[in-house]
Task: inverse folding
């Protein structure tokens, strides 16, 4: 019998690295890194899995005696992965649905305001909450440069990405000071920035609403109005 490979990441399968089914028995198709207790451990599409696996190119070279660069490893995976069971099954979701899942995976995003000289000012921020693929809530200080920018011009850009897939959005910002919404969106770690909690007068929320999107997901590119 020939060598068996994980039908998700392509790793050679042995009895010591097989995944498990929901009843605890060994799964003969997927490795333990990809599949445990009857479920995939990562909510990846194929291109994300390739980006993830390419991190381990040095380890792959060491174990196989190959001398691949990360780009060469990715190209090999692009040829091999479509033959694996997990990726043979066509993903019938729309780009918007895929982008919604992508945003849910992301803890951090980048948002850009327009300053008083007309230049974009991009900054990375932690996501507080999201809805669909184009609505994001962020926490910031009322006296921040971002808030000053958005009071003058509420147009904004926002992008998010994970393992090679990305979405860029153009839209508008609402500055939220409503006490009920601030209480609803409050997270414990914010106390490090706003010592008076959700009632802190310097605590505001930015609600981004995307109107246009540029998608690059699993090798598919599109520009759409939302």
Result:
């Amino acid at each position: 019998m020939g060598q068996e490979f994980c039908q998700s990441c392509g790793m050679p399968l042995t009895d010591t690295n097989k995944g498990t089914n929901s009843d605890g028995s060994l799964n003969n198709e997927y490795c333990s890194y990809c599949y445990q207790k009857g479920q995939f451990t990562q909510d990846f599409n194929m291109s994300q899995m390739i980006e993830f696996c390419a991190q381990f190119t040095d380890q792959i070279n060491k174990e196989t005696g190959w001398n691949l660069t990360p780009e060469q490893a990715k190209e090999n995976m692009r040829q091999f992965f479509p033959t694996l069971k997990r990726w043979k099954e066509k993903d019938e979701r729309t780009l918007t649905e895929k982008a919604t899942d992508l945003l849910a995976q992301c803890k951090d995003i980048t948002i850009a305001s327009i300053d008083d000289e007309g230049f974009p000012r991009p900054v990375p921020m932690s996501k507080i909450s999201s809805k669909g693929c184009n609505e994001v809530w962020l926490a910031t200080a009322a006296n921040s440069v971002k808030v000053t920018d958005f009071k003058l011009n509420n147009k904004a850009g926002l992008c998010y990405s994970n393992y090679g897939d990305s979405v860029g959005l153009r839209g508008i910002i609402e500055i939220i000071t409503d006490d009920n919404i601030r209480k609803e969106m409050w997270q414990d770690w914010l106390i490090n920035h706003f010592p008076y909690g959700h009632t802190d007068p310097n605590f505001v929320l930015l609600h981004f609403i995307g109107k246009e999107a540029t998608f690059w997901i699993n090798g598919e590119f599109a520009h759409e109005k939302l």
Q: What stands out?
A: The radius of gyration is 22 Å.
